[in-house]
């Protein structure tokens, strides 16, 4: 085991990685801004110190191509991969959740005549009130097959926080936020970061935050219980993401293949990402 892989032992014990899901994080965090491409050799090198073998990388990429999330091209003897057109909208939506703070929104009640899926509700940040009725912040498009009612809280607004605590598994989510803060502290303690180890650490950090953020209701901070760890965890993510990016940027520029238009798009996208994270950090 080399020094780099040994330095990630504690971090990977706190955040075990599945190859397919982690590679999705790589493309969403590194490759998507600017719609670039990545040579599979660079992807293999990034994953090698994170206990993801070349065989697992190649197998996972092949499955992502088959499922329509990645498209591959060849340049000479090298294989490059990028997000498929169909996957970009999904990734853009995920980026809005991962890199930005929750905003005050109206509330939405969703009626599902045929019943709802618990997994689908979680991804929408909605809470089930009955087999046909769900409730949560009004954001994004109304799901197919649902009837939406948008509302503003009125009357005893102080009871809204009590309603949210009843509807959502806030204590379960709080445990996930606390575990994330432990991971972030371990990442912040990594010694002698190089551009490669900084990028690897940022990817693990983003992967862990992505798993929480995409399944959390993103409730306004003023409606959370006193001392709730979500704002602290979000600030920790923003702070470490920005610090790691400052070290990792030279490597990112080297491993991505993009034309001048894509590069300009990437620079604008990352400027927006930094601004959003600086606000929450």
From TrEMBL:
InterPro entries: PaaX-like_N, PaaX_C, PaaX_trns_reg, WH-like_DNA-bd_sf. GO terms for biological process: DNA-templated transcription. Residues 168-249 form the Transcriptional repressor PaaX-like C-terminal domain. Pfam families: PaaX, PaaX_C. It comes from the Bacteria. Residues 21-84 form the Transcriptional repressor PaaX-like N-terminal domain. This is Phenylacetic acid-responsive transcriptional repressor PaaX. It comes from Roseibaca calidilacus.
């Amino acid at each position: 085991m080399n020094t780099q892989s040994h330095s990630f032992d504690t971090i990977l014990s706190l955040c075990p990685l599945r190859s397919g899901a982690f590679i999705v994080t790589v493309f969403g965090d590194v490759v998507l801004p600017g719609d670039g491409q990545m040579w599979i050799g660079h992807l293999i090198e990034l994953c090698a110190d994170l206990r993801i073998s070349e065989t697992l990388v190649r197998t996972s990429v092949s499955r992502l191509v088959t499922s329509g999330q990645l498209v591959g091209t060849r340049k000479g003897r090298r294989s490059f991969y990028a997000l498929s057109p169909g996957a970009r909208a999904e990734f853009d939506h995920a980026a809005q959740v991962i890199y930005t703070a929750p905003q005050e929104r109206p509330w939405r009640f969703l009626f599902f005549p045929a019943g709802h899926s618990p997994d689908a509700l979680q991804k929408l940040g909605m809470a089930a009130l009955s087999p046909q009725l769900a409730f949560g912040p009004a954001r994004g498009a109304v799901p197919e097959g649902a009837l939406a009612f948008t509302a503003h809280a009125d009357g005893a607004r102080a009871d809204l926080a009590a309603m949210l605590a009843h509807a959502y598994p806030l204590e379960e989510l709080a445990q996930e936020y606390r575990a994330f803060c432990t991971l972030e502290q371990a990442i912040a303690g990594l010694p002698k970061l190089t551009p490669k180890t900084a990028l690897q650490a940022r990817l693990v950090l983003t992967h862990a935050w992505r798993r929480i953020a995409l399944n959390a209701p993103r409730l306004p901070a003023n409606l959370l219980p006193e001392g709730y760890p979500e704002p602290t965890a979000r600030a920790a993510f923003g702070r470490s993401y920005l610090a790691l990016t400052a070290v990792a940027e030279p490597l990112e520029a080297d491993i991505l293949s993009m034309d001048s238009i894509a590069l300009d798009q990437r620079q604008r996208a990352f400027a927006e990402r930094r601004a959003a994270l600086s606000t929450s950090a």
